[in-house]
Structures are given as C-alpha cells and as structure tokens.
Automatic annotation (TrEMBL):
Residues 86-96 have a biased composition (Polar residues). The keyword Cell division does not apply. It comes from the Eukaryota. It holds the Pfam family DUF4750. This is Small integral membrane protein 13. It comes from Solea senegalensis. The keyword Transit peptide does not apply. Residues 85-125 are annotated as: Disordered. The chain crosses the membrane at residues 43-67. Keywords: Membrane, Transmembrane, Transmembrane helix.
Length: 125
C-alpha cells in the first residue's frame, strides 16, 4: 500500500510538472503570438499612414495640374517663372506687322467711350 501511495504521489507530482510545463509552453506561445500581433499592428499602422500621405500627395499634384492647365498657364509671367516653353493658343498666333495691316484698318486700340469720341467733320455738317 505504501508503494502504491508513493507511486500515486509520484504520478501526481509528474502530472503537476507536466501540467506546469504545458502551461509555460502555452504562455510562451501566446506571448510570442502577442509580440507578432503587436508588430503586425505597428506595421499595418505605418502602412496606413504612408498610404494616406501618398494619396494626399497624388490628390494635391492632380489638383495643381488641373489648376495649371485651366487657369495659371494663361499668364505669361507665371509661365516664365516656371520655365514652360509651351505657349497657349493666344500667344501662338503671330501678330500682324504694320506692313501686313491694311492701311484703312485702324490700329488695335481700346474702344473709345462716347465722351472720348471726336465728332468727325462729315457728321457735323
């Protein structure tokens, strides 16, 4: 009986040690899994931040391109600042020289208001 109880005590102790070893192994695996999950979380956070910055940068570049094409490129001063060699259609048309302009056609000038117009001698008589 004493041998049986000693064997039983030894078996219980062995079972306790085995259970303790299993517990430590599970804790080690879980802590390793937790570390992996933490690094995955940090990596995912960094990926989201970088993707957000890239999207914002692309959106801003597209917006500036549209604004340049529709509005800012029309100003010769801004084109000279940027160094843009292409010219819009308004500047690409050659202006007429004095020799090409018909003699009876008036020079390009502002239209005069009623106060600025001088009465022609034919209309006064």
């Amino acid at each position: 009986m004493l041998a049986h109880s000693l064997l039983s005590c030894a078996a219980v102790e062995q079972t306790k040690l085995t259970a303790l070893a299993v517990f430590h192994a599970v804790v080690a695996v879980r802590s390793g899994t937790a570390a992996v999950k933490m690094w995955q979380s940090v990596g995912l956070t960094l990926l989201v931040i970088v993707a957000t910055l890239v999207c914002a940068l692309l959106f801003m570049m597209f917006g500036w391109y549209v604004v340049w094409q529709l509005f800012l490129s029309k100003f010769k001063f801004l084109r000279e600042l940027v160094g843009d060699a292409s010219t819009p259609q308004a500047d690409s048309q050659p202006s007429e020289t004095k020799s090409e302009r018909p003699t009876n056609a008036p020079a390009r000038s502002r239209p005069r208001t009623a106060r600025q117009r001088v009465a022609s001698p034919e209309s006064t008589s």
